[in-house]
Design the sequence.
């Protein structure tokens, strides 16, 4: 019997819905109370980030120029640490880096995704695609966004999120990871790692992002690489 594309899509949708229902029910039943972050050395992201690596140098007087989805008061509730930086390479290409780390990554305190916070600040979301970054230590599952503000500010974005020491791509994958931690009695921490640049040529910008992340992951120590991107 031949399966039509429509039936395949329907089967996939049913499977995803079932997985989400099971994981949501399990998470609600387990009710973990211990924070995974409390069982490990305290994570301080800022000191782990190099000011200079590969072909990139920090511009110390320029912040990340990033889009913040909430006011500072709410940001301080959602996140334990927020880093905004801008780096430049020898070609004059700039990359804005934003990292938001939260000790509690349950449904009430989730890292705020760019596809939500950028439009909230007036940006148009032109595209949103899944991808991968092949970097020092392995492969990071990412999302690549094309955004636009007004008539001439184009800002391509590459980002990923982590739960514990694992980079997670989708809502279902995140839920499964949450349940895995909850079964051990833990509420997992997590972060959002975002790089962006002002560039109307998105394909070129994404290659710059790839180079930036690859060189940074090669420069940081293994424990930092694991916490930042789920890499060994």
Sequence:
């Amino acid at each position: 019997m031949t399966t039509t594309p429509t039936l395949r899509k329907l089967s996939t949708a049913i499977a995803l819905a079932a997985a989400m229902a099971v994981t949501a029910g399990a998470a609600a039943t387990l009710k973990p109370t211990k924070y995974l972050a409390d069982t490990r050395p305290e994570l301080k992201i800022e000191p782990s980030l190099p000011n200079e690596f590969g072909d990139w140098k920090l511009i110390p007087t320029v912040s990340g120029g990033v889009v913040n989805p909430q006011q500072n008061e709410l940001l301080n509730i959602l996140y334990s640490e927020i880093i905004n930086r801008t780096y430049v390479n020898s070609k004059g290409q700039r990359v804005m880096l934003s990292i938001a780390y939260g000790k509690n990554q349950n449904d009430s305190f989730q890292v705020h995704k760019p596809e939500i916070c950028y439009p909230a600040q007036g940006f148009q979301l032109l595209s949103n695609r899944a991808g991968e970054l092949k970097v020092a230590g392995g492969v990071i599952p990412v999302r690549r966004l094309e955004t636009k503000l007004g008539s001439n500010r184009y800002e391509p974005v590459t980002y990923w999120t982590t739960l514990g020491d694992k980079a997670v791509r989708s809502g279902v994958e995140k839920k499964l990871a949450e349940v895995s931690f909850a079964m051990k009695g833990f509420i997992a921490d997590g972060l959002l790692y975002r790089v962006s640049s002002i560039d109307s040529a998105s394909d070129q910008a994404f290659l710059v992002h790839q180079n930036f992340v690859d060189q940074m992951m090669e420069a940081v120590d293994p424990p930092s690489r694991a916490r930042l991107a789920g890499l060994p």
User: Anything to note?
Assistant: The first strand starts at residue 34 and ends at 35. The mean pLDDT is 84.
